[in-house]
């Protein structure tokens, strides 16, 4: 309990009246574990500069065919978008895990810097493909894994974060660059993911979005 209160008599009923707070430092410590940052009012007025960069990636012919016909043959399977939900799912996968152009663009970005990087992704196959091209210290935050050791200790680490596991409630402010390999369906998750690094004390933040075009 962090609230200090007394009971006052109001018309025959005992009503709690807050008179202060206790264990405040313990509360600050607990909240900080989930990414909370405490500052003076004047510090919270503005955040550091934010740079949004869009890297355009060419879509594949398979993507275009599926978008038109709702069916496409791949090397090992056939995708059939017989409902609106399956069509949306397969379009998202065709735009990322079945698009080698996007993986090449990501590889170029990673090789262009030695900075600590965060990469947000959606699907397990995306994670597998990204891991295959990395030759730097790697951390992963996903539904079945939480290993942030290299993120904490290596300035040149690359951390893969699945939206559902790390878009909220985690502190990643040691990094100042996020790469969005694919986007979530929820705009709220996307905006929340930016807040994992967009905090005070760093001069500039960069968000790089790999965006498909026709």
Q: How does this model look, in words?
A:
- Helix content is 32%, strand content 30%.
- It is built from 8 helices and 11 strands.
- It has a 7-stranded mixed sheet with strand order 3-11-10-6-9-7-8. It has a two-stranded antiparallel ribbon with strand order 1-2. A two-stranded antiparallel sheet has the order 4-5.
- Strand 7 (138-142) and strand 8 (145-147) form a beta hairpin.
Provide the fold topology.
Layout lengths: L2 E8 L2 E9 L2 H9 L16 E10 L2 H9 L1 E3 L4 E3 L3 H11 L5 H12 L5 E5 L2 H10 L4 E5 L2 E3 L1 H5 L4 E5 H4 L10 E4 L6 H8 L9 E10 L1
Parallel strand pairs: 3-11, 6-9, 6-10, 7-9, 10-11
Antiparallel strand pairs: 1-2, 4-5, 7-8
Helix pairs in contact: 2-3
Q: Distance between the terminal alpha carbons, to the nearest Å?
A: 56 Å
Please identify, by name, the CATH architecture of the largest domain: 3-Layer(aba) Sandwich
The number of distinct structural domains comes to 3
Q: Structural class, from helix and strand content?
A: alpha/beta
Shape: elongated
**Hey, roughly how much beta strand do the residues contain?**
25-35%
Q: Approximately how much helix is present in the residues?
A: 25-40%
CATH superfamily (homologous) name of the largest domain: P-loop containing nucleotide triphosphate hydrolases
Using the coordinates above, name the CATH class of the largest domain: Alpha Beta
Please tally the helical runs, counting DSSP H or I stretches of 4 or more residues: 8
Q: Quick check: average pLDDT?
A: 86
Low-confidence stretches: none
Query: Could you spell the SSE succession in H and E letters?
Result: EEHEHEEHHEHEEHEHEHE
Q: Tell me the number of strands.
A: 11
Q: Sketch the major β-sheet.
A: 7 strands, mixed
**Strand arrangement across the biggest beta sheet:** 3-11-10-6-9-7-8
CATH topology assignment of the largest domain: Rossmann fold
Overall radius of gyration: 22 Å
